[in-house]
Specification:
Elements (H helix, E strand, L loop, with lengths): L1 H4 L14 H6 L8 E3 L5 E3 L4 E3 L3 E3 L5 H10 L6 E2 L5 H5 L5 E6 L6 H9 L5 E6 L3 H6 L7 E5 L8 E2 L6 H11 L10 H6 L9 H9 L5 E6 L6 H9 L4 E6 L4 H6 L7 E5 L6 E4 L12 H10 L6 E3 L4 H6 L6 E6 L6 H9 L5 E6 L3 H6 L7 E7 L7 E5 L6 H12 L28 E2 L7 H6 L4 E7 L4 H18 L4 E7 L4 H5 L10 E6 L4 E4 L6 H13 L5 E2 L11 H15 L6 H35 L1
Length: 623
């Protein structure tokens, strides 16, 4: 695997017998375990540190599927360049490189180059069919790579070597910023989705003051929302975020009594209950520091965790006969901000408790060797006698804990996202029937209608709609999965990914990965795409693994729009293009890589067979 990923992804090994602390840090419980670390760090408001949150690989332990899975996790920093947006791509003096190709997707090699040069050069990709655009750069044959230091396409420098990683690295390195002068790409920063929406006075009233949600709102007097606020919004769990420009909404800011700028205000469920943050006491300027704001929010996060001790332990567990209860055994006397946030996420649905400083008899009763440890107490048949304890097996992160507890909350959660959290029901309702809903550009069929507004998680099948017969079979498989998973936190639907390819690509789902099923959390902007066969058993396994935390999700930034044209027209156009081209050749890099994997696996199989044959001969001689 390392050999075939060389130059694209770094591969390392850890001896967990020698480095037990490192294994514990990343929640490694079995061997071998493969963790894939993302490119960018994410701020953790509970540890006050920025770190790369890894995804665990749970697929086959052979080279090709491991390579495919890792390459599938590469982020796409490559800009799609067309005639209509070429001006934006060339607008500044930031170094640029543009690849003209007949491929409709970005190759793993080019993705990895975009990552490696992310702070030194802007990489784009254009279609070779766009001959007018190619002509402006002096490109006549394909594939072709050009470098542009300014905004004039006529000044482009052509790469004259082969499209091989070593030669590409050398060419891009020659025209990129020097490593010591690296800086963020302003175009990529501008395109990055904003996590803090700007609210008008009317929106502040309707979305914040009239809601029962928890909000963190930044009131500022003109200018831009600081980057630290965007980072806070990305990291926050349990709170929604927004900003109000008091230079444009003076009256509402006056009504709110805000006269110091900037002011970060936390609105509780009761909107008359607010807390303000204007910076640390010793801060003189630029006081909206990420860590300070995070501390402020953590301090004022509502505590819905019940204090449990030996006196009320049995009383607290009595309710587990009707609905699961969660208890954290810890040395700390107060719940951590993380645990408070997780409990808040399930308010009105599941009850969370904290058993602080458990005695040795209690440790023995729960078979605890150390703390902290979380247990879920639940009943199989609704009786007190059937209550059992299940230890939480994952790591102490919001992203791992919430999906795990979601599987216990699902039967009691209201599907209406606008319903109060306390309005949970004890019934699970009848299993959904009828055709699997299809995501499309029509009323009631948009992604938001079928997934985003549903709350919880979405299980979306990405299929190739050009083959109606296969689609019917695949939809039937997902409908069977939907029935077997009921009740669950999943909302099931499907989308024609061959038609809505831009929408699918924003989740890194390309035509070569179809059919597949993606678990999407719109509220958390995270996704996990199924890897494996598209059958009932493996899809059920993936859904269970995501809920249990055995399979992690990855972040996505934003979703591209659905295709405006009729899908029949898109399929006809694609078929015509393929017929005219006589089929596309495989990407040279991937072709070589896969061929090498095949040769290695054949050699290994041959060696194993010869070894086995040799052992049989030796046994024969002994006789």
């Amino acid at each position: 695997m390392a050999k075939n990923l060389a130059g694209m992804v770094k591969v390392a090994a850890v001896d967990c017998d020698e480095h037990k602390g490192l294994a514990a840090k990343f929640n490694v419980r079995g061997f071998p375990t493969i963790k894939v670390f993302p490119v960018e760090k994410q701020f953790n408001p509970y540890t006050k540190k920025s770190a790369k949150i890894p995804t665990e690989y749970n697929g086959p332990r052979t080279a090709k599927p491991m390579v495919d899975a890792v390459l599938g996790m590469l982020p796409n920093f490559v800009h799609t360049v067309k005639a209509e947006n070429m001006t934006d791509f060339l607008a500044d003096d930031y170094p640029k490189a543009l690849l003209f190709t007949d491929k409709d997707t970005v190759s793993p090699l080019y993705k990895s180059l975009a990552v490696q040069f992310s702070s030194r050069m802007r990489l784009g990709q254009a279609a070779s069919a766009d001959t007018e655009l190619a002509a402006q750069f002096g490109v006549e044959s394909f594939p072709a790579l050009v470098a542009v230091k300014g905004s004039d396409p006529k000044a482009a420098v052509k790469h004259t070597g082969k499209i091989k990683k070593e030669e590409l690295l050398a060419f891009l390195g020659e025209h990129a910023l020097a490593e010591g002068a690296a800086k963020a790409d302003p175009l990529r920063a501008a395109k990055k989705p904003k996590m803090v929406p700007a609210f008008t006075a009317a929106e502040l009233q309707s979305k914040v003051l009239d809601s029962k949600d928890l909000w963190v709102v930044l009131f500022h007097n003109g200018g831009k929302v600081p980057t630290s606020m965007e980072d806070l919004a990305t990291a926050l769990k349990g709170f929604k975020t927004a900003s109000v420009d008091c230079a444009a909404a003076k009256e509402v800011c006056k009504e709110q009594g805000v006269d110091t700028f900037p002011t970060l205000r936390l609105f509780q469920v009761d909107k008359s209950d607010t807390e303000d943050f204007t910076g640390a006491a010793d801060c003189m300027e630029d006081c909206m520091e990420l860590e300070a704001m995070s501390d402020f929010v953590a301090e004022h996060t509502p505590n819905v965790v019940t204090a449990v001790n030996e006196a009320n332990f049995n009383q607290f567990l009595a309710g587990a006969a009707e609905r699961p209860r969660i208890i954290l055994f810890s040395k700390k006397s107060e719940p951590t901000p993380l645990y408070k946030s997780v409990a808040l996420n399930f308010q009105g649905i599941l009850n969370f408790g904290l058993f602080a400083n458990p005695s040795q008899p209690m440790m023995d009763q729960m078979q605890l060797k150390k703390v902290p440890q979380v247990f879920v107490f639940f009943a199989q048949n609704g009786t007190a006698e059937s209550v059992q304890a299940m230890p939480y097996p994952g790591g102490f992160t919001f992203e791992e804990m919430v999906p795990f507890f979601d599987q216990f909350a699902a039967p009691f959660r209201e599907r209406d996202p606008n319903a109060p959290a306390q309005a949970a029901t004890s019934g699970s309702g009848a299993a959904p029937t009828g055709p699997l809903p299809q995501i499309a550009r029509s009323d009631g069929a948009s992604f938001d209608a079928l997934c985003g507004s549903k709350g919880g998680l979405c299980a979306v099948a990405f299929l190739d709609g050009s083959n109606a017969e296969k689609v019917a079979e695949q939809v039937a498989i997902v409908e069977a999965v939907r029935t077997k998973k009921h009740p669950s936190p999943y909302s099931f639907s499907w989308v024609d990914a061959a038609c809505h390819s831009d929408f699918a690509s924003s989740l890194d789902i390309t035509s070569d990965k179809l059919p597949t099923l993606a678990v999407i959390s719109p509220s958390k902007q995270r996704v996990h795409a199924h890897v494996g066969k598209f059958n009932e058993a493996e899809l059920l396994s993936t859904l269970d693994a995501v809920l249990s935390g055995r399979k992690s999700t990855s972040p996505y930034s934003s979703l591209n729009e659905l295709e405006e044209r009729a899908c029949t027209d898109v399929h006809a156009e694609t078929a015509a293009a393929i017929n005219a081209a006589g089929g596309e050749e495989d990407d040279d890099i991937m072709k070589e890589m896969m061929e090498e994997i095949r040769r290695n696996e054949e050699a290994a199989a041959k060696a194993a067979a010869e070894s086995k044959k040799g052992k049989k001969k030796k046994k024969g001689k002994k006789k």
